[in-house]
Amino acid sequence: MSKEQAQINIENKKNISSHQTELKKKEELIPLRHTAEHVLHRAIQELYPQTLKVMGPAIEDGFYMDFDLDYKITPEDFPKIEAKMQEIIDADLPVEGREVSYEEAQRIFKDNPYKLDTINEIVERGEKATVYTLGNEGDPHYDLDLCAGPHVSSTGKIKAFKLLSVAGAYYKGSEKNKMLQRIYGTAFPSREELDKHLEKLEEAKKRDHRKLGKDLEIFSFAEEIGPGLPLWLPKGTIIKDELEKWGKETEEKWGYQRVSTPFLSKRKLFEISKHIPYFEDEMYHVQVPGENEEEYFIKPMNCPFHHMIFKNKTRSYRELPLRLAEYGTVARYENAGALNGILRPRLFVQNDAHVYCTEEQAVEVFVEIINLHRYYYDTLGLKGYYIVLALRDPEKKDKYHGNEEMWKKSEMLSKGAMDRAGIEYEVVNEGAAHYGPKMDFKIKSAIGNEYGISTNQIDLFMPQQFDLKYIDKNGNEKYVIVQHRAPLGSSERFVGFLLEHFAGALPVWLSPVQAEIIPIGEKHLEYAKKVVEQLKDSNIRVEVDSRSETMQAKIRDAQNQKIPYMLIVGDREAEKGLVSVRLRTGETHNGIVLNEVVDKIANKYLTKALDLW
Ligand SMILES: [Zn+2]
Ligand SMILES: [Zn+2]
């Protein structure tokens, strides 16, 4: 193992173990948060006696409670509800559970149709019915709820909590059912931990890619076009194009060949790839004019098209590994509830490629792909990434294609490759692709949110489906192995991630406007134009603020737009061929020779530097 690999391995180990510590911490908080939800229920019930509780679980960062109540709760009601919750917590009521018969459960909850519905489901599944009590009968805050636990032993254990938001939620998540109310909250064993969490939520709000996308004019949506179909605005298009240019240049260096394929196809192709019937619900169907026309579908993936290019001629072992790359636009009909700005749209362009290789080359090719990921992440200064190997869910083997032997082999190849690369990874028994194990690269943004941006898959199934073969040294036909990879994910998702990670202050090379020229007065406009010319000659994206605003206002606006360099020009600068530089970090460098500044910015652009000076 090289020194560099050993270092990466240490990083990986650290990232995996910090991820696991976090998971464990969250798991340990479940009883506390679940109990806080019971306290919320009791408080609401006391304040609004008509409330019918539906359900209320602990979730990743807190808890929520669904209930049916004619009065519409707003955040203005939270202080009152929180005060009542605090009363119940201060009373330090014991939380106790007991098993009840189905009949007893039905009797206890006879006035709550939602609970009766849940009890019927419990009966159908043949599970035990359990109820939990807060306090003892007769206590002013005594409460009883149908629940499977777990809880902490008494309400006093809740040292810090907060209600966060209220929203509508359909019963059982279906639009056919009644709209209920849902209150979200969170709880922690200490005030400190709660404060830290609230700070993070505040920071996350500022970094929300949908807010930044609007403020910085990066993307938008139009009702007339449809949900999940993003419009890239001029500034966003610059970012997207820079990323894609980088992808293309890098792939060329790494031995990829570019291809270009149609965005729709006849049903037949997707039947071979098994997208139909398995993904038919997520595919856009195209109505072809005229009668007796064949059905067409918009592609949800590029793979089948690349496979057809591979099959275009007889392939020899000498051509392998064959790397076919395309920035391919794909469409997936995501659930309306799952849509999230450009992080999860319905149409996106993938940094896609398929590498066709022999079995003997599979590990080597995989290591090469990991190194490509590392190159991209390192350039962007992304440190907190690690790999998850997603295998088949052993309980649901029928969900996946291919036989046992094929799965064993692709698992073995994937693990072997990661061991050879000296990569630490986490194994999970779910989330594999329908045709093979998947290696997900998880990246953490600066505020600790985790994103699955890209995956890599070793695929033995599609070569058989598509009959993808090569002629080996001895003239025998053999199946190739396909590796699916997309290190930069989709441009949409990747830009969404980068916006959050950098809080909109993208590295110079990705900044839509790299330098803003700020003339102090009207008489400095002429020199400002000269500065613009010189920057443009070095391909730097530049704007001049010629409004008759004050210098402070111009600086503030450029700062809000996260423009890395503000070049201020006044009498002294114009006279001596200088500029005064203000960085978006607040740092200033006064009276610098113009040429020097142009070279510096051009150099930061060219080298994709992360720093500004
Ligand atoms: Zn409970
Ligand atoms: Zn693919």
Describe the structure concisely:
The chain has 613 residues and is of the alpha+beta class.
Number of helices: 19
Form type? globular
User: How far apart lie the N and C ends?
Assistant: 36 Å
Question: What CATH architecture of the largest domain would you give?
Answer: 2-Layer Sandwich
So what's the CATH class of the largest domain? Alpha Beta
| Beta-strand residue percentage | 15-25%
User: What count of structural domains?
Assistant: 3
Q: What is the strand arrangement across the widest sheet?
A: 11-16-17-24-21-20-18-19
Under CATH, the topology of the largest domain is which?
BirA Bifunctional Protein, domain 2
List the helices and strands and how they pair.
Elements: H1 3-28, H2 30-47, E1 52-55, E2 58-59, E3 62-68, H3 78-90, E4 95-100, H4 102-108, H5 113-125, E5 129-134, E6 143-146, E7 160-170, E8 179-188, H6 191-206, H7 209-215, E9 219-220, E10 231-232, H8 234-253, E11 257-258, E12 264-266, H9 267-272, H10 275-278, E13 285-286, E14 296-298, H11 303-310, E15 315-316, E16 322-331, E17 347-357, H12 362-379, E18 385-390, H13 404-420, E19 425-428, E20 438-444, E21 450-459, H14 461-466, E22 469-471, E23 477-479, E24 481-485, H15 491-501, E25 515-519, H16 525-537, E26 542-544, H17 551-560, E27 565-569, H18 571-576, E28 578-583, E29 588-593, H19 594-606
Parallel strand pairs: 11-16, 15-22, 18-19, 25-26, 25-27
Antiparallel strand pairs: 1-3, 2-3, 3-8, 4-5, 5-6, 7-8, 9-10, 12-14, 13-14, 16-17, 17-24, 18-20, 20-21, 21-24, 22-23, 27-28, 28-29
Helix pairs in contact: 2-3, 7-15, 12-13
The site of one zinc ion has 4 residues, from loops.
